[in-house]
Amino acid sequence: MQKLSNLLHRITNWEQWQVLYILLSLSWLLGPSLNHHISARLAFASQYEDPGQSWSWLFRLCDTLGALLLGLAVGILARRRRPLRLFTSFYGISVLLLGIIALGSFIDAAFPSACHADDALCLIPVGISSIVHSVESVGTACALIAVNLVWVYRNMPWAKTVLFIQLVWGGAFIANQLAGRPDIGLIQFAYEIVVILWTASIVPVLASRRTGPNSSSRLQIAAHGIAAWVFLGGFFSIVTAIRNIHQVSDLSAAYFGNNTAWLSQHGVAVGIILMYISRHLWRGEYRAWQLTSLLLWLETLKYSIVTPDADLAVLYGVTAAVLFTLRRLFDRQTSVEELRDRLVKLAFVAVAFIAALTLGVLAYRFKHHQDLDSLRFNAGQFYRHLFLFDVVNDLGPLQRRLLGQVLNVAGIALLLAILISLFRPHKPLLRPFNEHDRNQLRHLLGRYSTSSEDYFKYWPQPKSYWWSVDRDAVIAYRVVGNVAFALADPVAPDDEARQRMMKHFLEFCRRYGWRACFIMIAGQSHELYKQSGYKLLRIGASAVVNIDEFSTTTARNKWWRWVLNKAKRQGWKYAVIAPPYNSQLIAELRQVSESWLTRQNHVERSFALGYFDEAYLQSCRLHLLREENGTLIAFANELPTFNGVQTATIDLMRFLPEHNHAMSALLAHSIQQLHEEGAKQSFDLGFVPLASPSDRTEQIIQKFGQLLMSEAVSAQGLEQFKNKFAPAWVDNYIAFDGDWIDLVHITRQLDALLKPEP
Predict the structure, then answer these.
(1) Which residues contact 121 (CB under 8 A, 6 or more apart)?
(2) DSSP structural state of residue 254
(3) 732: which strand partners?
């Protein structure tokens, strides 16, 4: 057993084990399409394995391999704990019951029921094989119920749902038999699928291992591939429903007197839903995973029993099995979408639906005419096909027509209800802001701050704060629409704690259906976000000036001598002052600020930037430039820093429009003042977005950068100006959860985020 265990671990993992077990154990779903001698409506699943039946060897072989695979997993689980406390521990009882189920599955394949076909009914003669088969069926069913009861007692996922399905199936089966209507095929097939999936999900949980290979990128590729296939599958589901409108299934007699329009209605409804939810599936939403899994298994049942088709049954079945094993990738709750996003998606689905419908009608006409010359578009025929009436019966009597209309209206209403209710915006209540959080944040900034712009995590308010369990780390964020914007980096003791916070914040956002986005990430934190599961995009760079080098070297070059000499000739006076400030100075500052805002239509920004606010300015040191007569012509506020950060940052840089060189002179004096004080090593001149965008992605980046700078400027000109300070350029990034479509949405929400609160 140890050798087999080692072999299993070398060649596979629990996720691949799940896929193999599900596909092997559900091979009998191909029975109705491969064996036409047994009625799919009247037969048990195991009767396709009876000796003498077509393809019985295939189904028995697959069931045997599936049982051995389950038995091997049970053996591995049994050896993991010594001694295994049977009948006393949850783990031991579960492993024991799984062993009984594995043994029963093996006996089921080894001792078939020896069914003999007789007018499409299956007659089972009494014998040793049939007795063993019956005893095994009862024993396995009891073991399945027992393991469900154990897991219900432990409040494990799926347990209550599966137990409810077992009880409902048992009641339906008994009622069906007592009523003398042996139509048990569809009921049993659906029940067996649920049981196999349930069994496949138990084993990895007991193994206490996350399913899946080490490389998450491969899983993401597989999940995105399935999402793309789901969209195409929905498209071709509509095409198939239309072109097969004349096919009569075994169950059609039970529905509307051989009118098969209900099958086409089912195909079209499923197709529309699949196309609609494919985007949500691509994003990794759990509810989309649930709905897609249900639809794929329903389609598998449809092409296994209702309209048997081996190729389509395999296609849908394999996809459903693989999607089931990728469950852990779909951890995002339903997203909050703007009306515009939802309308765009519905319009795209509507266009695809019309294209599929047209293709289906053309395929149907070609199928029956077999003559390209006779293919003519007829609006009346197209309208009739659009509403899925079966022209074989020419709409039928009045009662059938009325029933068909009711079903169409009900189907459309149900479809709309599903699309609206399942993906309705989810807006959870956020924790209200309180002063205790701010005080504790300020305490943490004093210990762990790493950036000169960390003050914006403290001001302006309101912001929400997401704390670690021990409240020794925090992320400041705000939710706009369905995007949770956070200021980088998390305030935490070290890189390991910061990375842990990034991962937990991502999980937190996905639980509420938000897109997580960190803005203004410095280059040294790039890898931390990447390893935490975020996508990164470089949006520009910050100009960081070495204070000593500027004061001793750069400020003495020709251009700076000209600027400083001009300021001296005009009598401009520099001063640096600390709070508190009187009302007269605040009024002067406001006048300069309002004049600056009128220049090139500047706007105030918030969240990651400061705006003119008296309380804000009262917390900052001010650098002032006045004319000889005392008139204030320019000012800048220096952000407070924490934890001995060696970089100084100027936020508001505002001047009277008629004094173009005032800000250059003010910045030069400010850097020289910092040099004289000797408390800081570098001076952050601020962010510059990528210049000269050449494609759509770079245009988005430039828009992002301009919003962060509060103005639409020439990035190239701004870069040339800041290069006069001889800075070192430090790359800036955004880190976001999603794809490039999400990035467009994030950019739209950024403008609302940066607007100051009224």
Answers:
(1) 39, 42, 182
(2) G
(3) 522, 540
